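Regression test case RT-17, inverse folding.

Input:
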């Protein structure tokens, strides 16, 4: 009786593990499906950009539009590669889980078959004639009744044991097939990654060629400076529009602070105390700048911080993300609203980790420095505004 109890307990545990693994596998499938949808959306955007490239190449000064197109495709392709790597890791984890499930099912199957073999031997010894003797030898009607119940219970247990063996064999077969399918999917992912990386390398080579053409053409350089002025106006327009919804954003900010028990000094009190948004050194200061080639005076609405590609870009204070967008000449741009109508702007970034409407903590990573952010290489363009007034970020950083 004790052996039966032990076996039943073991089998129930194995069934529980099976269902737990099934839930885990469903979670992997859900994440992979979501990841695939994101990759398809990126493919759609990349396809649109490719179709636009031919139009730009027919224009006399289309090189600037080509460069902008190339930058966008580099950004989208980089994000696609990141998602493909994530899917690859998910599939590898799922395959490892399937392998564990498969091995446990094999162990359970061996235990079930061993028990079944013992039951067959026992059944052989207890032949029909011997079973009849059990009834004939009964000392009383009560004992006869209990012997009938015993034989019926043994037969039911045998049928259930046989069914469990069949179910377990089906599970083993299914897991073996799934492991093979995941192995094939992983190989497909690796091949896709190699193709995308090759395409990314070509895009970067194209971008460098476009940079060289612009550097050697004063007309194109002048046109590019106009783009920077357009960028400043775009930031002004976004902040102006956001000001219309500032009450809602500030209410959300206070709500999130209370929820997290965050106590922050007013942003206006942080002048000279803000942490740097990225590790690096300033290569272009705020304000009036003389172009080294054209000799013309331009105005930089922020500072440019030289930093290694991939370095973390962090929020200098807590706040609400009010915009995540792409701006010509500056690429991916994030704008965060802080209290007292202060805004910080982060451009030339990639691998964005935030979305519009999200609360961010002070020091939280929001992106990383783009390797292809500008003609100067990997730099973070950082701005600080109070309503429509642009401020010198250097005097605010510690």
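Golden output:
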């Amino acid at each position: 009786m004790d052996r039966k109890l032990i076996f039943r307990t073991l089998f129930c545990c194995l069934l529980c593990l099976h269902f737990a693994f099934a839930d885990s596998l469903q979670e992997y499938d859900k994440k992979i499906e979501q990841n695939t949808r994101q990759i398809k959306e990126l493919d759609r955007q990349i396809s649109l950009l490719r179709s636009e490239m031919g139009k730009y190449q027919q224009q006399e000064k289309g090189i600037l539009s080509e460069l902008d197109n190339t930058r966008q495709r580099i950004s989208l392709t980089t994000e696609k590669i990141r998602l493909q790597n994530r899917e690859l890791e998910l599939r590898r984890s799922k395959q490892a889980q399937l392998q564990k499930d498969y091995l446990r099912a094999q162990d359970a199957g061996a235990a079930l078959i061993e028990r079944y073999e013992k039951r067959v031997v026992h059944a052989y010894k207890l032949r029909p004639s011997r079973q009849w003797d059990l009834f004939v030898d009964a000392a009383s009607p009560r004992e006869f009744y209990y012997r009938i119940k015993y034989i019926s219970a043994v037969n039911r247990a045998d049928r259930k044991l046989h069914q469990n063996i069949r179910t377990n064999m089906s599970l083993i077969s299914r897991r073996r097939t799934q492991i093979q399918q995941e192995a094939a999917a992983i190989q497909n992912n690796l091949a896709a990654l190699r193709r995308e990386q090759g395409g990314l390398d070509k895009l970067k080579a194209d971008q460098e060629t476009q940079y060289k053409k612009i550097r050697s053409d004063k007309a194109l350089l002048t046109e590019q400076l106009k783009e920077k002025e357009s960028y400043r106006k775009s930031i002004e327009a976004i902040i102006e529009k956001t000001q219309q919804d500032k009450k809602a954003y500030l209410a959300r900010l206070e709500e999130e602070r209370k929820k997290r028990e965050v106590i922050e000094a007013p942003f206006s009190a942080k002048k000279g105390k803000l942490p740097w948004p990225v590790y690096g050194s300033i290569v272009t200061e705020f304000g009036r700048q003389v172009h080294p080639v054209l000799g013309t005076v331009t105005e930089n609405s922020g500072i440019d911080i030289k930093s290694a590609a991939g370095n973390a870009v962090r929020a200098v204070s807590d706040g609400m993300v009010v915009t995540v967008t792409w701006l010509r000449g500056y690429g991916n741009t994030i704008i965060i609203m802080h209290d007292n109508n202060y805004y910080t702007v982060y451009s030339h970034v990639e691998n964005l980790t935030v979305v519009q409407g999200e609360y961010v903590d002070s020091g939280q990573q929001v992106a990383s420095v783009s390797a292809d952010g500008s003609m100067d290489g990997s730099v973070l363009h950082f701005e600080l505004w109070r309503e429509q007034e642009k401020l010198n970020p250097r005097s605010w950083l510690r």
